UniProtKB/TrEMBL annotation:
The protein's name: Cytochrome
Residues that span the membrane, as ranges: none
Organism superkingdom: Bacteria
Family: Belongs to the cytochrome P450 family.
Species of the source: [Actinomadura] parvosata subsp. kistnae
PANTHER family per UniProt: BIOTIN BIOSYNTHESIS CYTOCHROME P450, P450, PUTATIVE (EUROFUNG)-RELATED
Entry keyword set: Heme, Iron, Metal-binding, Monooxygenase, Oxidoreductase
InterPro entries assigned to the protein according to its UniProt record, in alphabetical order: Cyt_P450, Cyt_P450_CS, Cyt_P450_sf
Length: 387
């Protein structure tokens, strides 16, 4: 199996790894695959033994011309995702404050207004490509609002964030790499200016700027938040609608029982983890699930596989919004648990409540749905809907 095939449908590989004794080495990931729920939870609970450095190792190394475009821009510092210990605590603290329940609650009127406006913009058309019309714009607008960005700057900033991802995970011709790097450099300059202007403001960018002070750290962590702050929610907005409509009984049940919206959100996260997993680096010789690992070896901790573990979840390959709740690991666990999980859940809740009320006749326009070739934000590339 090549890497793209694994990224598009990793579940058969996960199933074989869960059934095999010990850990399974994946050539495509160049890492030991941690596939069972108990093992995933154990690794996430032991950050001293499994370092987050290199958590999101690139698939592609950009060429020298692309690096030259980035050289003059601020950034290039470590981020919360890939640090341990004191550094991780320092980077995470302003995120915890900025994404606190109180801050999320204060943002909900903006979320509701934006969600309703997006839906109204295409509701009369009777059809829409969900990912472009709603699943991408809503989380982008919300994270831009929390950062305090000018709304006019948000679409370009989000596009540049995607270009940063492409630079590291999508093979491109050299000229395309240079063009992408140029957009990323412009984004970093924008975020630097915005952080300086936000020092006295009560927003997420101001929280980061006051807590970190080093401009390179501020820009890197703001850029990381901009991307991570909407990709997870975008992915879940795609997969929850896809799976609710793929089995019509699930959609009709949700229409009849809107009280199941929170359960539908958790089931979507369990069934199709938006971030399929992260790498961890072994810090000392140890044994995990009977497999001896040396210091410096890499494991891939699969949240997506943990959610399909039959020892924890009954009928794990069935999407069922009436499932008895069991704690999934799709938002991580322990010190690296996703600080934006509440914000993501609230955007999904508002969206599903809006859809069952305003578009009860919603259905898939076709059966063919292609998943994006990435493990970072597992979502349909396109999702055509009619009503």
């Amino acid at each position: 199996m090549d890497r793209e095939a694994l990224y598009r449908d990793p579940y058969p590989v996960y199933a074989r790894a869960r059934a095999a004794p010990g850990l399974t080495f994946s050539d495509e990931l160049d890492a030991w695959l941690v596939a069972r729920y108990a093992d995933v939870r154990e690794v996430l609970s032991r950050p001293g033994d499994f370092s987050s450095q290199g958590a999101l190792r690139p698939d592609v190394l950009p060429g020298p011309r692309a690096f030259a475009e980035l050289a003059g821009a601020p950034g290039g510092a470590p981020v919360v995702l890939s640090t341990d210990g004191e550094a991780h605590t320092r980077y995470r603290k302003p995120l915890t404050r900025g994404l606190s329940p109180a801050r999320v609650a204060a943002a909900l009127p903006f979320v509701r207004t934006t969600a309703a406006g997006l839906l109204a913009s295409f509701a009369r058309a009777g059809q829409a490509e969900w990912m472009a019309a709603y699943a991408r714009p809503l989380p982008a607008a919300v994270i831009g609002h929390l950062l305090g960005l000018d709304p006019a700057d948000v679409p370009g900033a989000v596009r540049a964030g995607h270009r940063a991802e492409e630079l590291l995970f999508t093979p491109m011709p050299e000229d395309e790499q240079v063009a992408a790097a140029r957009e990323v450099a412009a984004l970093r300059h924008l975020l630097d200016r915005h952080a300086r202007a936000s020092l006295a403001r009560d927003n997420l960018a101001g929280d980061l700027a006051r807590a970190l002070t080093d401009p390179n750290e501020v820009v890197s962590n703001t850029e990381n938040l901009l991307l991570a702050g909407h990709l997870t929610t975008t992915a879940l907005l795609g997969t929850v609608v896809h799976h609710l409509l793929r089995d019509r009984r699930q959609w009709e049940l949700l229409r009849a029982r809107p009280d199941l919206v929170p359960a539908a959100i958790e089931e979507a996260a369990r069934y199709e983890a938006p971030v399929q997993g992260f790498r961890r680096t072994v810090t000392r010789p140890l044994t995990l699930s009977g497999t001896k690992l040396a210091a410096g070896e890499t494991v891939f901790v699969s949240f997506g596989s943990a959610g399909r573990d039959a020892t924890v979840f009954d009928r794990p390959d069935t999407f069922d919004i009436t499932r008895e709740p069991v704690r999934h690991l799709s938002f991580g666990h322990g010190v690296h648990g996703c600080p934006g999980a509440l914000l993501a859940r609230e955007q999904l809740r508002i969206t599903l409540e809006l859809l069952v009320r305003e578009l009860p006749g919603l259905r898939l326009a076709g059966e063919d749905v292609t998943m994006a070739a990435t493990l970072i934000h597992r979502a349909p590339e396109r999702l055509h809907l009619v009503w």
